[in-house]
Specification:
By secondary structure, the protein is mostly helical. The chain has one domain. The longest helix is centred in the first third of the chain and has 23 residues. The chain is globular, with a radius of gyration of 15 Å. The chain starts with a helix and ends in a 9-residue tail after the last helix.
Length: 152
């Protein structure tokens, strides 16, 4: 797709679909007293959330002139931290909670652990923060993709 705004819109729409699916799953999650999931059956929820975050970050970058070809480079593919860093370089501020959540999700998303190996990864703990915090993060990222009358 050669039009970055059209691609940004497609990424945004797909992200919202993943997010809505995560909300359905999230509503049935059994949680501990601290709000974190009680069971590993929450992994599909975090897979959807991580992918939604990736697409929202990419959408926000495309809206700010980042090139589609650069998004395909190895350094950015599935690397939530790198995508967030590029967005911050463009002067976009994000809350510390969002930075922390993105940082926590990055490794398992980049390594596809939630799809393949999270149950058997030695010494690695699956990052599963409380769903309410995750939804706040996605709310914030979604706002960064909105249409602006100021050209951004």
């Amino acid at each position: 797709m050669s039009d970055p705004i059209s691609l940004a819109s497609a990424y945004r729409l797909t992200a919202v679909n993943f997010w809505k699916s995560a909300k359905i799953i999230g509503a049935s999650l059994e949680t501990k007293s601290n709000g974190t999931p009680a069971r590993l059956t929450a992994m599909p929820f975090y897979f959807l959330v991580s992918h939604a975050a990736e697409l929202l970050l990419k959408s926000a970058l495309l809206k700010r002139g980042f090139q589609e070809s650069d998004l395909k480079k190895f350094d950015y593919r599935h690397n939530l931290d790198a995508l967030l860093e590029e967005l911050r370089k463009k002067g976009v501020s994000v809350t510390p909670d969002t930075v922390r959540l993105i940082s926590g999700l990055t490794s398992q998303h980049q390594n596809h652990a939630l799809r393949y190996t999270a149950l058997v990864d030695d010494g690695q703990r699956t990052f599963m923060p409380p769903p309410l915090l995750v939804f706040s993060m996605l709310d914030e990222l979604l706002l960064l993709t909105r249409i602006s009358t100021q050209g951004i």
